[in-house]
Amino acid sequence: MNVTVTPHRFDRTVRVPASKSHTIRRLLIASFAEGLSEIQYPLDSLDARSCLSVCRALGAEVLETVGKNGLERWTVRGIGGAKGIHRNTAPLDVGNSGTSLFLALAMASLGSEAITFTGDEQIARRSAAPLLQTLAGLGVTVDSGKNGCVPITVRGPWRGGNVGIECPTSQYLSALLLAAPLAPAGTTAEIEVPLLNEKPYIEMTLSYLDKQRAPYERASDFSRFTVRGGFSYRPVNGPVSADFSSAAFPACAAAVSCGRAVLYGLDPDDSQGDKAFFGMLRDMGCSVEWTEAADGGMRVTVEAAGGLRGGCFDLNDTPDMLPAAAVLAAFAVGETRLVNVAHARIKETDRIAVMAAELSKLGVNCAELPDGLVIRGGERPRGGLVNGHGDHRVVMALAVSGLGAQSPVTVTGAEAADVTYPGFLGLLG
């Protein structure tokens, strides 16, 4: 499907959807817990549905409650740890969800049954090799396609041990940390981490271990973790926090169109690293104001107070923000450098190369760095046809560019936006 966005001022009040990262972590913990969990207002998207399908295949029972405004809760009866994992002869399909693949396969590797994972064409290009090598070092039998890509088969149980893993994506380490407490009693995983990108996502994962009171030790710089097995997860309950990653796109829409976005549901104290995007907006010249909403929560208002200005931004902690940041930079006066984000090349697409190519089609002066982009903006993009490459964040970012372009922007493959933000493209009409 194609979407065409015509230039106009974006002025919207938006309730931000739930966080994908929180939704998937809660769903996996609830699925492996003892007892009944209630996950309120989870993200209802293609990625979340992929994780839900995997959890059901592993044995969790999930009842959905739908109200007039959509999905209200998942009630999850967990399998009680590795002993409850169901035997599956068919591969478990994670669709486009890399988070579901990495986190779920580590948890599935705790059991004594062979479990196979597969996914879509993009997932088939995303390597899990470092994670698989580490799982093998902990006693897991692993088999995979070329370069550690799906189909991937894992079979436990874990024996524990001393292992090392470089984490160009934090999802490798989050997967190990979520699974390790459920390993057999008496086992210990000693994990050395010489490279770690996206540190805030590890802080998010550890926040769940802390709430569960799971036993672990860590170095202050996150270079080493010790996790003992024999633990059982308890039910997780309550509402899922809104998603800063998704909120970036309506905020960006306001910025590039000299408009205004009022965003509800975000928690400025949440562990999500992508909240840093709002600091970037302020640094580039936007007004960003947090106030208390009538319902007792918080709202943030983003307004383009004047012209945007360039700057240099380290995106190591926030690689998912690269597409939106690149579009902001295209409208900013002067040079913008988006750096220290080489791992954006191993997401659903090589987002550095893709954003450089597609913005260039719109007349933007954009050059690749090994670890980022240099964009010289100041003139409005000229509009035209661009390729979304089946990448949800690329699609949304390019669609936003049409609001401030000289003429309409048409994005191909726009249905990919439903992976994390169903309904977003409708906000741009």
Could you list the spans in which at least 5 consecutive residues all have pLDDT below 50?
none
Number of strands: 23
State the helical fraction: 25-40%
Overall residue-averaged pLDDT value: 97
CATH class of the largest domain: Alpha Beta
CATH superfamily of the largest domain: Enolpyruvate transferase domain
Spatial order of the strands forming the largest sheet: 2-15-17-16
Q: What does the main sheet amount to?
A: 4 strands, mixed
Query: What is the CA-based Rg, rounded?
Result: 21 Å
Instruction: Tell me the strand percentage band.
Output: 15-25%
Which architecture of the largest domain would the CATH scheme give at its second level? Alpha-beta prism
> Could you please say which CATH topology of the largest domain applies here?
UDP-n-acetylglucosamine1-carboxyvinyl-transferase, Chain
**What would you call the structural class?**
alpha/beta
Report the total helices: 12
* N-to-C CA distance: 16 Å
The structural domain count equals 2
Overall, the morphology is globular
